[in-house]
Amino acid sequence: MTRSLDTTPKPEIAAPPSLVAVDRAIAELRRGGLVLVEHADGAALMMAAEAVSDESLSHLAAAAGSATLLGLTGRRAGVLGLGDTEAGVFRVTAANGFDAATIAWLADPGARSLPMPVFKELDARRAGGLDEACVALAKLARLLPAAVLALAATPAADVVRVGATEITGYQDNAARSLRQVSQARVPLENAENARIVAFRPSDGGIEHLAIVIGDPDPDQPVLARLHSECFTGDLLGSLRCDCGDQLRGAIAEIAQTGSGVLLYLAQEGRGIGLVNKLRAYELQDAGFDTLDANLQLGFDDDERIYLPAAQMLRLLGISRVRLLTNNPLKVDALARHGIEVTERVPHVFPSNDHNQGYLRTKATRSGHLF
């Protein structure tokens, strides 16, 4: 007798305090507020670099009782000529401190249209875990990967507090806390026998979705596609990428096969978020390819993680898949997280005049197979 996938909603699970702390810190950063990040080596008040003003910089320094510092990824520091490595985080200091225009110029390549500030005695050095956690929190907030911080000798009152280890462990912990919260039958074009199952982390974060087509047999390798959300390509039909073609093509192919699952992952722009993806598009229009545009912003070329996908498959009762992908990294990632990929199924679509360079870069620099 064929076993069915388990798509029923599951009871709510209380969020661990560590997830709640990071979630609150993310919200505070996104509205331009201060967050106290605590590390074994000390503590710092921080705010997102893209949210600073001269007034908020003065408030930060006064609240902490120390000078403001700037945390940049090694990628961004390398672009600026301040570092000699692409890894880790650099702490940048200035002899006379920072103003908002200088921070914007250092943190945001889009600010190059502003007059170049006068830099006095800038110093950049590899930073430790405290700075790394601050920059990681800015990334989690889908902001530019840069943090303004001031070392705090005493804990500040009435400020959201979060531990560095809570920040660095957040993505894995959130993925492991995913649960099925709802499902419904949703007939789709080219796949009328389809259901959508929603998965939510216990801190109430953004949902990932599974599109279950037909009645997959979890005792056999299931045809599956991992698809990162792409607002411009999936919804608007953007010609800059092939995401819309891949989404609709995968749904059609799974339906033609008879059954399978498409995981729709909330990882816009290779994990950097929609706003930063639009920033990267501006840089691409200035001549950078899709990977170098991300590096100019200070991101790695791909910030996605695939533990959420593996966890979703496990919750559905799936342990083996035939993976629709051109990206060998997805095959390796699922294997690392305990999902066996029995076959890589090619997933190729024709290019157009607007995405030829994008597809060429994926093939030559990201190792995609076409």
From TrEMBL:
GO terms for molecular function: 3,4-dihydroxy-2-butanone-4-phosphate synthase activity; GTP binding; GTP cyclohydrolase II activity; zinc ion binding. It catalyses: GTP + 4 H2O = 2,5-diamino-6-hydroxy-4-(5-phosphoribosylamino)-pyrimidine + formate + 2 phosphate + 3 H(+). It comes from the Bacteria. It is an enzyme of class 3 (hydrolase). Pathway: Cofactor biosynthesis; riboflavin biosynthesis; 5-amino-6-(D-ribitylamino)uracil from GTP: step 1/4. The active site is at D302, R304. In the C-terminal section; belongs to the GTP cyclohydrolase II family. This is GTP cyclohydrolase-2.
